[in-house]
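B., you asked whether I could sanity-check this one before it goes into the benchmark set. Here's the sequence:
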Amino acid sequence: TFFKAFRLNQADFRNLISGQTNSLAGKALRPFLSFAAASYSAVINIRNFLYDKGLLKIHHPNATVISIGNITAGGTGKTPLVIRLCNRISQPYISAILTRGYKAHQSDEVAVLVQNCPNAKIIVNPDRIKGSDEAIGKFGANVLIMDDGFQHRRLYRDLDIVTIDATNPYGFGRLLPAGLLREPLTCLKRADVVVLTRCNQVTDNDLARLEEKLKSVNPNLLIARSIHNPTYAISFDNKKIGIAELKNKKIFAFCGIGNPDSFLNTIRQIGATILGSKSYNDHYHYTPGDINEIYEQAERLKADFILTTQKDWTKITPLITEKKDVPLAYLAIELKFITAEDKITQLIETTLAGKIHKIK
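And here's what the prediction gave me:
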């Protein structure tokens, strides 16, 4: 809605709030964004105060609830972490993922969860209370993984895990819409665990300073580092392409995600060369014309492959009617811990064992 009102795309908006846009229009718009952010901050602070003091009711389901969330808008790596966590939880636990979806059942993220979490029930409902009731009552779930749950405080959680993108941890230091922060950093006092994502795209010194800052907000935080690890690519004809096969290849890349630069950096880190790229707004709905334009650009640049994300893949495959000269594939990504994985595993196991034992 904001983008449409000011005729901005996602890239323009990021340039505006980061200060890269120095046009007269940009300078004139920023004070309005700051005013809107101040109003938003007041609402957030009042709401959190009411929950903290017990003046707003919190629903306690008969199940263990693990929330995966963030404090900034855009892609921080929640979905890969939800997938990793969900696939590590096995019997005697019955798990369900609670997601609000995006535009109900048409969500690209929901499709990715369905593909990658075959043993879990995926419950799509913007009302997390009704979603938890369905998961427990209909499917007998005793572990609920709440996707994008940090700000949804109506549902009690036994463990709060927050993902923070190490390449832009503070959302330009301002609340929406003047920045990308959904809540002030001080709200991390509610969190139990912070998982820093894309740690291989920043320096060790930057990571150390970030961890120090987070610890100053919440000394009890368990902080883990992780990376988005590319595992393979899958082509339109369902051929599995190894990462080694993509090395030194010429790539045309496109995506419609919250942090497109991170996807492009991942492609570069596998040793491929990006000849050209196209970024769309997050949750973009592609048209046949978009696909034709992508193919035309890739062919003109003489690319060896066209690469996109799995999230985008779920939306574009129905639009492709024939095999083209340039192979089109999605790059499969998994979240890989590089520190503190054992501590997080132990914390989750302790949480599950203690809660499940109590509710049996």
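One thing to flag: The chain has a mean pLDDT of 91. Otherwise nothing jumped out at me.
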